[in-house]
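Something for you to look into today, if you have time. Could you write out one complete protein record for me, on any chain you like? Leave the record below and I will have a look.
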Amino acid sequence: MEDHALRLYIRAKLENGHLLPYENVSRVWGGPGNGGPCNGCEETVTKPQLGMEGVTIKGDTVHFHVKCFYVWAAERDFSGSHQPRRATDIRTFSFPAPSHAPPAGTPIAGP
């Protein structure tokens, strides 16, 4: 699924209130996919793929592709207001560079 479409899909599921939990996960872990559906995009998380799994504060279990997990987390926390974005909101989201990444434009030495 394209990045923009995934964001809109997850926003719509959060907005619905029943299709995707809005509360934080109290515990999260990653590992090989279990062959089950991703709660974000609904596609299968296959064994060769890395999956993220967690338990919400209410005790619901969630399964995601790594990318879907991060989009879900970002869409829940985008402003700290605990209000989901509207599914029709087309503003884009981009992940910040990791803290260990060199500044943009820094030459990278090769072998």
Remarks:
- The two ends are 35 Å apart (CA to CA).
